[in-house]
């Protein structure tokens, strides 16, 4: 599954390119609990087609009803939605919050852009598909859009007369090794919105690979890491248990801005890996502190799918800036269990 923002913007581009009336809705403010974070987007076409989400579904239903009725000339006054962007709030009262399925006390505000220009959408989607992080700024007076490359992700900014939102390319995951665990982890990463590449020079493993949607590379892992060019939206995880394949790939990954670099293995194997990489490759202590292992959070996992759940949970926590308690780390949890065992 692709990054949802890219899907929304690409679909909106296609609608506008085909001459369809459409709007883009962006969550710009929330008060209390909210089903979707600030910056979330959805697009709505004149025929009621919708992509993306700004809530759990009820607000989307209301937007679809109101605007398809207006497009069809059935709304009082028969006003077709057009003109400069406008704001709309949902959940201002307790009754409205209940009606729209918002959590207790939840209120959100949307910016609605009517018939965004197809050419600007073309440029934005092309940049995102090319791996560029982009800042999209909307002038509220008339809906004019300015695009500019961004150096780092930024929060949505609602300023004097403008709204600026950062859109980034897909999060990417590079997995070293094409075994059974990798199949489960790749599947979870794909439906979590990551673009997945799997590297394994061993033909016998590649031949059994069965996960559609993941790219498969056959070169040596360190070469694949270099070609992959991990950035702040990338993670690299070694899953082969083979130092000849894992170590050089991890060393190259640790030189990049990848937000997550890790390897599977026991506590003893992890300690041995750190020792090898320090003694033979000269990695500094600061680099080794970035190397996660044994990867995952402790959930007592034993089977490949359970281990994949554990790893994916940790990757998502790091991606979302959540600091996990130390006793959820696999090594720490197992050490504590060993100390308390009878």
From TrEMBL:
Spans traversing the lipid bilayer: none
Domain of life: Bacteria
Pfam families (alphabetical): XdhC_C, XdhC_CoxI
The XdhC- CoxI domain, residue ranges: 15-76
Domain XdhC Rossmann span(s) in chain numbering: 173-315
Protein name: XdhC family protein
Species this protein is from: Ramlibacter pallidus
């Amino acid at each position: 599954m692709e990054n949802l923002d890219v899907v929304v913007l690409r679909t909106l581009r296609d609608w506008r390119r085909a001459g369809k009336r459409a709007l883009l809705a962006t969550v710009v403010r929330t008060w209390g609990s909210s089903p979707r974070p600030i910056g979330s987007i959805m697009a709505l076409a004149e025929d009621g087609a919708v992509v993306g989400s700004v809530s759990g579904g009820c607000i989307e239903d209301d937007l679809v009803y109101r605007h398809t009725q207006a497009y069809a000339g059935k709304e009082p006054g028969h006003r077709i939605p057009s003109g400069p962007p406008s704001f709309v709030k949902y959940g201002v009262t307790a009754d409205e919050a209940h009606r729209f399925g918002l959590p207790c006390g939840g209120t959100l505000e949307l910016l609605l852009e009517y018939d965004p220009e197809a050419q600007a959408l073309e440029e934005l989607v092309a940049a995102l598909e090319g791996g560029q992080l982009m800042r999209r700024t909307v002038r509220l007076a008339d809906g004019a859009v300015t695009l500019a490359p961004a150096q780092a992700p930024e929060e949505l900014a609602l300023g004097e007369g403008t709204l600026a939102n950062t859109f980034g390319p897909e999060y990417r995951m590079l997995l070293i090794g094409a075994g059974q665990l990798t199949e489960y982890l790749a599947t979870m990463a794909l439906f979590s919105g990551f673009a997945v590449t799997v590297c394994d020079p061993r033909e016998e493993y590649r031949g059994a690979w069965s996960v559609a949607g993941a790219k498969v590379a056959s070169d040596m892992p360190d070469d694949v890491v270099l070609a992959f060019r991990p950035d702040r939206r990338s993670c690299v995880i070694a899953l082969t248990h083979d130092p000849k394949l894992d170590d050089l790939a991890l060393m190259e990954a640790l030189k990049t801005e990848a937000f997550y670099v890790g390897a599977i293995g026991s506590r003893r194997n992890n300690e041995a890996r750190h020792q090898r990489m320090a003694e033979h490759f000269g990695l500094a202590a600061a680099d080794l502190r970035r190397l996660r292992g044994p990867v995952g959070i402790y959930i007592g996992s034993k089977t490949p799918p359970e281990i994949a759940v554990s790893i994916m949970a940790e990757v998502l926590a790091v991606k979302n800036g959540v600091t996990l308690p130390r006793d959820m780390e696999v090594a720490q949890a197992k050490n504590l269990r060993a100390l308390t065992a009878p």
